[in-house]
Amino acid sequence: MPLHKLEHFDPDYRENFGGDDVKALELYTEGGERVGSVADVLVDDDGHFRYLIIDITLDFLTKKILLPIGLSRIDYPARRVYVDGLSRQQVESLPDHKEDAILNNDYEEKVRSVFRSPSSGVTYDRDTYNYQKEPALYGLNEQSDQTFKLYEERLVANKQRIKSGEVTLGKHIETETASVTLDIQKERVVIERVVPTEVGKVVNPSEVQFQEGEVARIEVYEETPEIHKEAFVREEVRVKKVVERETVEAQDTIRREELDLNTVGNLHVEENPPTTDEAI
Q1: What is the sign, positive or negative, of the torsion defined by CA atoms of 246, 247, 250, 251?
Q2: For position 65, what pLDDT does the model report?
Q3: How far is residue 235's CA from residue 237's CA, in Å, rounded to a whole number?
């Protein structure tokens, strides 16, 4: 199976490990002796740690070696990687790892043969070999109680208030010619001459009074229209804003990490569901 440098396999690996970076951690023996530092990590196609690339500085010996991950214990809070039983003889027997080294099956077997216990009972066959056959070399030998963070992405929606337009109301004056109808009265004088009902009747001289200059006066009236303008409220216009609500839906692709659990041997592993607080 091809091997990849950690950063080439996952450029965001630091985020996935909660900000911790295994590269540049100091390498110590369980007895507290510093023997080097981690230069890089090699992972397989599934992202499993397989080797630490170690810069060895042991006395006057300096070289790069491959250390199977199962021989180490990573302590991120202490910024250290612990390895037990890494002898000077093993370091000298390991091939000096070069950047351009071809990491084929034979190269890996040369590394494994240095660390493999004679009592392991493993017989190497390049066609059938897999890492699960040697958990002592490739099983993660970390703290017995540790936290492995699984991340997921969620869509977070926020609202922003922006001006989408405006409405302006004003007044202007329009003119038109209007007409109104009004009934008016005019008086006129009508003079009628009629035949007396007693034509030819002799009038008593004592009743006859001849007068000169007798005048009858009649006043004549007529109505004239008086037109004026008055202003009335024709219409009221009220301007107000109302808030309308609508639900909009946005879609995007989010990622979520799921736990892959691999066991070797006849083990009973109990997986408890997260509590309410943990699930949140």
Answers
A1: negative
A2: 87
A3: 7
pLDDT of residue 277: 52
CATH class of the domain at 4-155+253-279: alpha beta
Round to the nearest angstrom and report the end-to-end CA distance of the chain: 38
Say how far apart CA 79 and CA 26 lie, in whole Å.
7
SS3 49: strand
Q: Can you read off the two tokens belonging to residue 118? A: 């004679």
**Residue holding tokens 């196609």?**
45
Check residue 165 and give left, alpha or beta (phi > 0: left; psi -120 to 50: alpha): left
Structural domain boundaries in the chain: 4-155+253-279
CA angle (58, 60, 62) in 5-degree steps? 65
Name the region of 59 (left: φ>0; alpha: ψ -120 to 50; beta: rest).
left
**pLDDT at residue 203 tops 50:** yes
Contact call for residues 3 and 68 (beta carbons, < 8 A): no
Please say whether the beta carbons of 33 and 80 come within 8 A: no
Q: Which residue has the tokens 């080294």?
A: 101
Closest CA to 137 of 93, 85, 92: 85
Interval 52-76: pLDDT, tens: 898 887 777 788 889 888 888 888 8
**What backbone phi and psi angles, to 5 degrees, belong to 28?**
-130, 155
In terms of Cβ atoms closer than 10 Å to its own Cβ (0-12, 13-18, 19+), residue 148 is exposed
The Cα–Cα gap between 134 and 10 comes to 25
Q: Is 21 helix (H, G, I), strand (E, B) or coil?
A: coil
